[in-house]
Amino acid sequence: MSSPPTPLLRTSGLHWRLLQPQDLDAMEALHHLSIAGLPPHTVKAEARTFLQSLLQGRGTVIGAWHHHTELIAYGVLQHDLLPTDDPREHLQLPPQQTLAKLAGAAVAPQWRGYGLQRALITQRIGHTNSTTVLFATAAPENTVSWHNLLGCGFRVRALEYRYGGFARYLLVRLPSHAPPQTSDASPLELHIDALAQQQTLLAQGWQGIAPGTLPGSLRLQPPTGNPG
């Protein structure tokens, strides 16, 4: 294993390229390394066959390589979605709306803290056109994941139970030309311990717009026109 750079170097010197089918072993090894020790309700373990299908055309996988030889981070942009994973109806989007999913990312443990998670998000955004709606899911306990997504223009639109009944935020990034959705009413901050209340408000049209002031809390904005 190589040593990570000093904080001043950040991610400079890394080589970014799309993963190919022959990179499957490296991708699978990094996936399992990145989730080692994490509880299953926080991060979903993926089967090798799913990772292989992504490299064979179901998606685009962007990788960061150290010295062109060591895969130290990757992010998935999935285009071929299962009907059960399609949020168009839930978001009241037309059937023809182009969608893509940020379907997982991995960073080698010794490379965490250098901004690679957010870099992977921006890299994947850059691989879509201006009309694509992007979405992702994140466990409420996985604060690093949804903090980074919120920082890149995503909003929490729903709280769902997936992957065997585990809580997941549904985060959505609308096309760049979409008008901003704002409200004059005061936002509300709720901790992840109050998931039932969060779920109720999100179902009423509230949106998670930013991390709250307290660790583990989410700032929710009322729908436009809501008097508060």
Set out the fold topology.
Elements: E1 14-18, H1 24-35, H2 48-58, E2 59-66, E3 70-78, E4 99-107, H3 116-125, E5 133-138, H4 143-151, E6 155-162, E7 166-173, E8 188-191, H5 195-203, E9 207-211, E10 217-221
Parallel strand pairs: 4-5
Antiparallel strand pairs: 1-2, 2-3, 3-4, 5-7, 6-7, 8-10, 9-10
Protein name: N-acetyltransferase domain-containing protein
Domain N-acetyltransferase: 14-175
InterPro entries: Acyl_CoA_acyltransferase, GNAT_dom
Question: Would you write up a description of this structure?
Answer:
With 228 residues, the protein is α+β, with helices and mostly antiparallel strands. It folds into 2 domains: 14-178, Aminopeptidase, CATH 3.40.630; 179-228, no CATH class. The protein is built from 5 helices and 10 strands, in the order βααβββαβαβββαββ. The chain has helices spanning 24-35, 48-58, 116-125, 143-151, 195-203; strands at residues 14-18, 59-66, 70-78, 99-107, 133-138, 155-162, 166-173, 188-191, 207-211, 217-221. The strands form 2 sheets. It has a 7-stranded mixed β-sheet, with helices on both faces. A 3-stranded antiparallel β-sheet has the order 8-10-9. β4, α3 (116-125) and β5 (133-138) form a beta-alpha-beta unit. The longest helix has 12 residues, at 24-35. The protein is globular and about 50 Å long. It comes from Giesbergeria sinuosa. InterPro entries: Acyl_CoA_acyltransferase (IPR016181), GNAT_dom (IPR000182). This is N-acetyltransferase domain-containing protein. Residues 14-175 form the N-acetyltransferase domain.
